[in-house]
């Protein structure tokens, strides 16, 4: 712990679980079994983990970071071409302050949000952006789907169970690129309010500038600092489907570094038409009651957007009091 009470980089690496993706996909049967066990423990105890040896080329990630930087450095008029407001708009570009707490503290963020599966969408500029992003999301989607198989096994199901039940072949995938300008560009508090993500798992890659924090036991803990690693976060529909066993991870962004911060964020969820509730295999009469009402995924997205404006959460609508 540093002198000002903030988590240090070494403390983060020692605390947050680290999962070796290569053991899940190409290791021996014993390695695979151990990786599944570790994923289950990380999802239940922490709600997040760092993923190493994931196979997404560092060169591809760096090219995506450079292209994202080029996009956000276009003129305001150029970026306004991609301005949109609906949660299911295929391309949404926006910038502004977001409310952090009832004291009306505000943080600045710019973002580009793309629906990339089952249909791929991307701005036509800068030149080459679409082709690069298409390759990147294919790679990250493959990683996410293998992780879901591991999660499925960790819950005691066969590897393909969650894919079948949630129609993941037609699953909804986003690429959200968050841009927090440097202090030289824009001297204002930068970050993103505490929240959880929709979907099953979120993959996040940062450009080396820290800022991601997760809530654990009532305290904010810095997440990141592991070279060439994805931050993986449990999301709302994993909590719903697991009937509360794997909690959705509350996280936020607080950028104290004066450099610009860029994150590539991939929420991965069911198909928009899928009605998601607790797995029937995890509900058993009076012993294991359902803790969430079923809701169509697309309706949850709309509900979440409206409730966030009111300072609430979509869980408020579907959670069943115990």
UniProtKB/TrEMBL annotation:
InterPro entries: DIOX_N, IPNS-like_FE2OG_OXY, IPNS-like_sf, Oxoglu/Fe-dep_dioxygenase_dom, Plant_2OG-oxidoreductases. Keywords: Iron, Metal-binding, Oxidoreductase. The keyword Transport does not apply. Residues 171-270 form the Fe2OG dioxygenase domain. Pfam families: 2OG-FeII_Oxy, DIOX_N. GO terms for molecular function: metal ion binding; oxidoreductase activity, acting on paired donors, with incorporation or reduction of molecular oxygen. Belongs to the iron/ascorbate-dependent oxidoreductase family. This is Fe2OG dioxygenase domain-containing protein.
């Amino acid at each position: 712990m540093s002198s000002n009470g903030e988590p240090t980089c070494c403390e983060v690496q020692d605390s947050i679980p680290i999962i070796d993706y290569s053991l899940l996909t190409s290791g021996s049967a014993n390695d695979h079994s151990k990786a599944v066990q570790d994923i289950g423990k990380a999802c239940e105890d922490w709600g997040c983990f760092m993923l190493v040896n994931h196979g997404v080329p560092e060169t591809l990630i760096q090219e995506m970071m450079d292209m994202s930087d080029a996009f956000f450095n276009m003129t305001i008029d150029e970026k306004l071409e991609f301005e949109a407001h609906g949660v299911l708009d295929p391309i949404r570009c926006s910038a502004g302050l977001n409310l952090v707490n009832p004291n009306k503290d505000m943080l600045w963020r710019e973002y580009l949000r793309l629906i990339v599966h089952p249909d791929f969408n991307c701005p036509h500029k800068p030149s080459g952006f679409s082709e690069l992003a298409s390759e990147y999301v294919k790679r990250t989607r493959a990683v996410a789907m293998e992780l879901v198989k591991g999660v499925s096994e960790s819950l005691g199901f066969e590897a393909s169970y969650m894919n079948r039940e949630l129609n993941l072949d037609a699953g909804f995938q986003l690429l959200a690129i968050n841009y927090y300008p440097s202090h030289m560009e824009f001297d204002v508090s930068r970050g993103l309010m505490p929240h959880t993500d929709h979907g099953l798992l979120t993959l996040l890659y940062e450009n080396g500038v820290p800022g991601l924090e997760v809530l654990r036991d009532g305290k904010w803990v810095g997440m990141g600092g592991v070279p060439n690693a994805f931050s993986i976060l449990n999301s709302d529909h994993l909590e719903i489907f697991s009937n509360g066993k794997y909690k959705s991870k509350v996280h936020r962004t607080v950028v104290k570094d004066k450099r610009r911060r860029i994150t590539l964020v991939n929420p991965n969820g069911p198909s928009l038409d899928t009605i998601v509730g607790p797995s029937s295999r995890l509900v058993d009469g009076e012993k294991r009651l359902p803790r969430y009402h079923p809701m169509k995924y697309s309706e949850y997205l709309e509900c979440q957007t409206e409730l966030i404006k009111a300072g609430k959460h979509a869980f408020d609508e579907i959670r069943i009091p115990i």
